[in-house]
Amino acid sequence: MKSLILVLLINAISWSTTEAEGEVCSVTQTCPQGSYCTFIDSETSSTGGTGSCEVCPDSPDFCDYDFLPELGVDSCWNECPYKPCSSTKPCSENFFCTYENGDAVGGVCEGCFYPRPGDCSTVANLTFALGVQDCTSQCEFVGCDVDSDNSCPEGYVCTLLEDGAGICDVAPEPDCKSSDGPNVCGDRFYCGLFEGVSSEGGGGDGYCNECPDHIAECFASDMGLSDDGKNLCAEVCQTSCYNGYEEKNVTMDSINYWSGAVVGSPSMELTGALVACSLTGCDPMATAASVNGGDNSESMICLMETNDQSYLWEYVLACQNKGGGAGAILYGDFAEQYQGSLYGVETSIPSVTMTLEDGQALIDATREGGSALPVASMEVSSMGELCFQQCSEDFPCHGEEYCNYEYEGSLGYCEPCRSEEDDANCFARGLTPQGAAECASICSPFMGSPVATMSVEESAVASVNGALAGYGGCVVLALVMMLL
Description:
The chain has 484 residues and is of the alpha+beta class. It has helices at 4-10, 70-79, 129-138, 227-237, 284-291, 312-321, 356-368, 433-443, 456-467, 473-483; strands at 24-26, 35-37, 50-55, 84-85, 95-97, 107-111, 143-144, 156-160, 166-170, 176-177, 189-192, 205-210, 239-245, 248-252, 255-261, 268-278, 281-282, 300-305, 327-332, 351-355, 375-380, 382-392, 401-403, 411-416.
């Protein structure tokens, strides 16, 4: 239950303030009270370090998860507490007052999307009659048929519940138009046109959605996209770009520890003393030893433990500004070969991540070295922006590229016909049978020597036989032919 103290503390905040709306904001330039930063730079990137201020909703439950980048969602949750309410301060439309602190004091606003039909009397914090009453009156649930376009009133959409029933929920306001161009929603977002949304006259209203893992998902029936929406999704999402980094290790005492460059980190090579640090700064005695040159190095590298993947930039800035570090190694309970991101926040020092086990090994070295701090080297080396094309049978590659079909059967990524790393023989590249056949068919005119076109069955034989050349290839060929 949200406490009475919370309600009293935030009671002075004005949720009706609109002066802040539209103001530019960033990590260092915060929004006025009662508003949050979207962290969406609509001109450059959907996950940039700047954005615009928006007035807080009545409840942080209504932060726009589908459109805001992770920093924007975090800002909304941190800056927008639950709006206090009472009989004299009612909640906005589609919100209800919990009255959890008693009928006289009131409670906080929660969104109508949380309770479902019949839930108003069973929600845990609705222990007072007025809470149940307000929930029932504010949240009018209308049943609907998910297979029908006309079962909900205008302005509502039919939402399928876990039990198979459908209820009419308030439709979100459209936030994009297809006529505004394919990149209106920013990088890796597309303007979703759903069934029932008109696209006549140059493009209809839609909703910004994050691109799926593969463009084939644009055509899945459960996406609910119209024909125009499916094609727009595939067009926008076919090309994926990311900042690539070379794999580099942190080295200490000739031992290599795998590290992942944090996306957005500047490229730099560094050797320095390892010092344990936190958000509040670094060990002052160790810092003094580093500055005084007791470790025979001129720089200091911060060792910082964190599992907060959304706020790695805070730790890097703390190392840079409070600890005086020249580089940051962030370790925690991360997945194997996890990189992390600065989410557009600019830093002047290189930063990498590593596993909890490796990080603790480095920390142990700082405790066992006595007065001399251990010295390590780290490197961040950017390869710049790397882009690749997704492909399928319906969305082929162009020019001197073929679809490798390595992703779930008939889906894949475009690869160049000519590559210094790949064998000239398509059937010796370790491709799937369908990918090898596509390579042979597309790349024949571009290769130094002709590559015969084969069926998928024939390419399967060639792929297996080529991979095992020198190990009784003819026998393998005969065995595979028997299985086909």
